[in-house]
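Q: what sequence does this backbone want?
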């Protein structure tokens, strides 16, 4: 792996997406579990308030990641957003209605009003949690891209077995991740129900991650020619996910959350390392793959962006770290709830 600014920015984008999947991943999981583990309004308020200080800050990572792709690899951005337009629109729709639901839920005390917005939170969390896995699977598997870097397929090209496996893998992993977060942040009935949900969804997530890893070899050529053992990191991801079950059964939820986050980190790293030096794979002709070189901006642009990132990324990390430190306490029945 030759190190240059193109490689640096590919790696930085991988880091941004990893941060997004780890942080927003538990947000999605909490939203997905909301209607199922909390039946009373007080319990649902506790669930929502567990991510209240974090969810909008966590979305900064995807905004930064999308902006980095646009600036560093404009051809990647153009091809992906035109080819995945409908899927990305659905994802954006989910994120929008989810944000609205967080703000509007408490505008009325009517049970029907709040219940309706709770299901909007579920829907707005479910859609992107599923579609992120679908998107990554299709990028790995390859989509019809011609010699002009133009996507020539349709929406149904994105619906295939491997994409479905990827979607279910991301959905179940994020749900498990969110359940562990709730076990750390809540108490009482909510915590007990979250633990029960983890024990049901966690094994499914393990199976789906295994199928996604195996499918990477069966349905894609992404691992061909990789400079390191392509099985090492996916296997470590699976092992870390398996360890989550043991940790949860032994009431070590802090370590369980860390290993769940490590699973997401290693899984995302597997995808980016398998792609390198490609950013999108053409299913029509390997010579038409988008790479970190033919899809990139000028070296001057990458240099300026590197200095900007060097200054502002540490600021974002410090701010988010401070936020999590301030709101680190567990929520109880006596906690004053905002939402």
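A:
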């Amino acid at each position: 792996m030759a190190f240059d600014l193109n490689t640096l920015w590919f790696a930085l984008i991988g880091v941004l997406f990893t941060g997004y999947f780890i942080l927003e991943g538990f947000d999605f999981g909490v939203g997905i579990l909301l209607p199922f583990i909390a039946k009373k309004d007080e319990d649902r308020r506790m669930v929502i308030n567990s991510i209240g200080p974090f969810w909008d800050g966590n979305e900064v990572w995807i905004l930064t990641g999308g902006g980095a792709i646009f600036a560093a690899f404009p051809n990647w951005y153009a091809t992906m957003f035109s080819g995945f337009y409908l899927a990305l629109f659905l994802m954006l729709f989910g994120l929008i209605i989810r944000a609205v639901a967080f703000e509007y839920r408490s505008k009325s005390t009517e049970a029907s009003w709040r219940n309706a917005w709770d299901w909007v939170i579920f829907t707005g969390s479910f859609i992107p949690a599923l579609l992120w896995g679908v998107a990554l699977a299709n990028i790995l598997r390859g989509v019809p891209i011609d010699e002009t870097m133009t996507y020539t397929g349709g929406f149904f090209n994105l619906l295939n077995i491997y994409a479905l496996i990827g979607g279910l893998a991301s959905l179940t992993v994020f749900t498990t991740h969110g359940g562990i977060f709730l076990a750390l942040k809540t108490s009482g009935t909510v915590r007990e129900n979250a633990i029960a949900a983890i024990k049901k969804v966690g094994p499914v997530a393990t199976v789906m991650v295994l199928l996604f890893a195996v499918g990477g070899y069966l349905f894609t050529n992404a691992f061909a020619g990789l400079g390191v053992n392509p099985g090492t990191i996916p296997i470590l991801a699976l092992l870390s996910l398996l360890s989550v079950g043991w940790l949860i059964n032994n009431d070590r939820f802090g370590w369980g959350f860390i290993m769940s986050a490590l699973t997401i980190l290693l899984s995302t790293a597997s995808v980016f390392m398998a792609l390198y030096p490609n950013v999108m794979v053409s299913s029509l002709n390997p010579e038409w793959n988008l790479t970190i070189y033919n899809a990139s901006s000028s070296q001057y642009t990458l240099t300026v962006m590197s200095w900007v990132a060097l200054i502002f990324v540490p600021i974002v990390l410090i701010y988010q770290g401070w936020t999590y430190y301030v709101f680190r306490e567990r929520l109880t029945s006596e906690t004053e709830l905002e939402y």
